[in-house]
Amino acid sequence: MVSDTKFQQSLDGLNDDPLRRAWRGNKQGTIELASVPRFDNPYDEREWIKGHMAAAFRYWGKLGFGEGVSVHFSVITKSHLVLVGPDGYVSPHGAQLPINTSGFHIHSAIHKARPDVKAAAHCHSINGKAWSVFGKPIDILTQDACFFHDNLAVYANFGGVVLAQEEGENIAQALGPKKNTCILQNHGLMTLGQTVDEAVYLFAALDRMCKVQLMVEAAAANGLKKSVIDPEDAEFSAKTLQHWENMYVNFQTEYELLLQETNGAFLK
Questions:
Q1: Rounded-to-integer distance, Cα 118 and Cα 114, Å
Q2: Which of 91, 149, 154, 245 has CB atoms 3.0–4.6 Å from 234's, for a disulfide?
Q3: Are 194 and 244 in contact (CB under 8 A)?
Q4: What is the distance between the alpha carbons of residues 116 and 105, in angstroms, rounded to a whole number?
């Protein structure tokens, strides 16, 4: 006989550290998952971040996110990265290349509004653009959609190409004080993170979920019933899956693959 009582999990008795909840080694504790390295020298940390940023762009290139000269990802190296001053202009340090004006307005507004954020990722991926036209959030349909439970904003407006500081500030306001992902209506996606790796992994995950949502909506329009995850179950999963270190770890297989495929060319 099948019980009608729905089983729900609890964090009671589990490790308080979301990273240690998601991964375990041996009983002796000698097998540990490597997380974000710690640096004594901020310049060493900066070089490490630049390497992961170059890898992130290459990853987006592999996913087909490139679109014209403003988002030409596939050949990026560390030496192509530009340092931008608070005035919005290229500084004499770093690559001496022009920057995208819209990118500055969006990213600078977010970093001003959210000093807790170390990386912001934005581009115009196909699936993200397609779902963005509805100006709606995605449903929590699958386990990996729990990345976005109570973590997804919608900027339900399109004011044209972002060439004014105010539009960047509007996007930052839509994200609010804690959400790390946003659907920009008629535009694309935006994700934030404690590391470049987290922001980029979240972006790719949100783009995939936009594709899933479009597929599910097409099936539902033909009579199939859509089942959405219960908020309580989504919240339980989110408390582990959304942890910034778990997000960082999720990107490391892609980073290692890029190292192999390019023989480390993006680190130059």
A1: 9
A2: 149
A3: yes
A4: 18
Work out the number of other CB atoms within 10 angstroms of the CB of residue 263: 8
- Mark the ranges of the chain whose per-residue pLDDT is less than 50: none
Q: Please report the pLDDT score of residue 161 as a whole number.
A: 72
Nearest by Cα to 204 from 147, 159, 160: 147
What's the CA gap between 104 and 263, in Å, rounded? 31
Please tell me the distance from the alpha carbon of residue 154 to that of residue 174, in angstroms, as a whole number: 7
First to last CA, the chain: 64
Calculate the alpha carbon distances from 146 to 7, 10, 47, 125, 159 in Å: 18, 16, 32, 21, 30
Per the CB < 8 A criterion, the answer to whether 158 and 131 are in contact is: no
Task: State the Cα torsion 172-119-178-156 to the nearest 10°.
Answer: 40
In this prediction, residue 114 carries a pLDDT of: 94
Whole-number Å distance between alpha carbons of 44 and 236 = 37
Contacts of 54 (CB under 8 A, 6+ apart): 76, 77, 78, 80, 81, 266, 267
Distances (CA, A) of 172 to 14, 94, 165, 256: 35, 27, 11, 32
The neighbouring-strand residues paired with 193 are: 119
44 by Cβ neighbours in 10 Å (0-12 / 13-18 / 19+) ranks as exposed
Q: What is the pLDDT of residue 255?
A: 97
Report DSSP state, residue 137: P
In the numeric block, which tokens belong to residue 148? Answer: 């976005």
* Cβ-based neighbours of 172, under 8 Å, separated by 6 or more: 109, 110, 112, 113, 114
CATH number corresponding to 99-250: 3.40.225.10
Question: What confidence tens digit (pLDDT) does each residue in 98-141 have?
Answer: 998 988 999 999 999 999 999 999 999 999 999 999 999 999 99
